[in-house]
Design brief:
Order of helices and strands: HHEEEHEHEEEEEEEE
Mean pLDDT: 76
Number of strands: 12
Structural class: alpha/beta
Distance between the termini: 47 Å
Shape: globular
Largest sheet: 5 strands, mixed
Strand content: 25-35%
Strand order of the largest sheet: 2-1-4-3-12
Helix content: 10-25%
């Protein structure tokens, strides 16, 4: 019974998405575990498809797609059901997005990681920075429950009722801000400790690349 209570308490902490520095009673280790658990659960709950870019697969959050400019995409093929699992096994059980970029010189996973700042090798990138900010809409009203995913650390956080957030990151980490109904935004962590974000409501006017669905 004691173990069950502890497990339920942990789930409550994760689901409440308390970010680093916003609850002094939680240890840094607990915060880090909760943020990684949230990142994992977001991927699982959304049943994200496998993403294959120029032949290289990425079992990561769909937020990764926000890093790619639609103008850089030549085409998108979608595999579903039997064709997806036949080609990619159990990894393709939720479907597969096969993205072909116009730039055929991006022919290795290392080049993809470098292009989208997912690889940090310099000493400056290893230094932790406490970043914070406020997320608002175009009317300058705070937005709560915005998911902030650090794609490098594979951790996620949420903005509070005042639209604010605080957590640790590293220089050159790629952050993606996502909330259903709004345009996602990508930011790269620099030296500035404060990152304020304005999210705009989605528009249907954006052009999309050719998408072919194969069953």
């Amino acid at each position: 019974m004691k173990n069950l209570k502890q497990f339920l308490l942990f789930l409550i902490l994760v689901n409440s998405c308390v970010t680093f520095g916003q609850d002094k009673n939680l240890t840094e280790e607990t915060q880090k575990a909760a943020s990684k658990k949230l990142y994992h659960d977001l991927n699982e709950n959304e049943k994200n498809p496998l993403v294959v870019i120029n032949g290289f697969s990425f079992e990561s959050s769909m937020a990764f797609l926000n890093l790619i400019n639609p103008n850089e995409i030549e085409k998108i093929d979608v595999l579903k059901d039997a064709s997806a699992t036949a080609a990619y096994g159990d990894k393709g059980k939720n479907g597969v997005l096969i993205i072909t970029l116009k730039d055929k010189e991006i022919n290795s996973q290392r080049k993809l990681n470098k292009l989208y700042s997912l690889e940090n090798n310099d000493n400056e990138s290893k230094k932790e920075i406490i970043i914070s900010g406020i997320i608002t809409n175009t009317e300058n009203k705070p937005i709560s429950k915005v998911v902030i995913s650090d794609l490098n650390a594979k951790e996620s956080y949420k903005s509070d009722s005042k639209g604010s957030y605080t957590f640790k990151a590293h220089r050159n980490d790629v952050l993606v801000y996502f909330l259903e109904g709004f345009e996602s935004k990508k930011m790269v962590v620099k030296k500035e400790p404060e990152i304020n974000i304005v999210l705009k409501k989605l528009s249907n006017s954006d052009t999309e690349p050719e998408i072919k669905i194969k069953k």
